[in-house]
Task: structure prediction
Amino acid sequence: MTDQTLTRAPEKLDVADVERRVRAIFIGSAGNLVEWYDFYAYTAFALYFAPAFFPASDPVVQQLNAAVLFAATFLMRPLGGWLFGYLADHFGRRLSLTLSVLCMCFGSLMIAVTPTYASIGFAAPAILALARVIEGLSLGGEYGASATYLSEVADAKHRGFYSSFQYVTLIGGQLTAIIVLLLLQKVFLTPEQLKAWGWRIPFVIGALLAIFTAVMRRNLHETEAFIEAKKAVKPRGSLRDLFRYPRELLLVIGLTAGGTAAFYTFTTYMQTFVKLSVGLTEDQTTIVIFGTLVFATLLQPTYGALSDKIGRKPLLVFFGIVGTLATVPILMTLKETKSPFIAFLLICAAWIFVAGYTSINAIVKAELFPTNVRALGVGLPYAITVSMFGGTAPAIALYFKSIGHETWFYYYLSGIIFLSLLIYSTMRDTKHESAMHRHE
Result:
């Protein structure tokens, strides 16, 4: 069997073929784990390293802090989606995947070794800002390239299952960050040590993981779809080429909006919500969030495999309908409970419908576009939509809470999911009408 047979769909898969696919899927999606580990490590350890970079006595630096936290990751993600999408469509998926994770390595290493404000003054937060800009580029570029690679490396009968591992590793990155935080907090270091120097450890770990992933990705096989497309047509991947598919671009934005808002609500914001609104202790919050993320991880391949049997559209419609109807009751009930176990069950209940989106959103987008613009078509509109609806979800929720109308956010989220439901109910089922075979 040659390397190029990796993406073919034989009548009957043998063990060696399955092993090769699994290895390619693991390496192709591993960057998500690294990138989301770094994203959450920054959030989880900000309490410890913030005083080292942003002294309260300097208002200019405080404003820079706010700008970094908001802008660095989310405003740079569309640029990263364009840059690495172009590289993936023009020069290959493997190159884009490798460069993306190397950017994350560089950003993490910068944070790990940057001197404090007391040592180099304003240069310290400026370097931190630059590091977050680099990580934002990487985070924006990783999604489109990895989603494209996973969709192309899988055989046609199991694309939903294989591509679901993008979110398995994505959520796995969050779990890894929580594990590192717990180990440093509870086992290895004191709070004083964490504030003094221990906060650098998770970023060193992130850089090492990124290097390891980059080395593995260097040996990835290029997908047969890209090789065939390169032979059939001149490499493209420019914005002009992408704009030839306006309907598909709008579909990506529409189907992403509700899903990304729900995802960030039940991951990033949920830790804040159960602590501030529900009133759980820090340890209870960590255990509840960790448990729900494990549950969410198990759902991804289950739903992905289900989509290979019944199609992508039924799962998206399921998410849209149940998300529209159940979001408000779940969040209202969650706010009123004081039991960590009930909180765990309610968040898991939310994941039952949110996974209808997360498990297959990558493959649905990949199946919308022909090979020559697939990575850019998946990555750029997704990054823009995440910046608009995903990354802003926690901030909107906290704003409504600050003005005494926290429940407004519940209806806001339900409304965004409903708008996406309109898209789900009218779009084609990409499993049955896929563009994966088109190179154009």
Notes: The two ends are 28 Å apart (CA to CA).
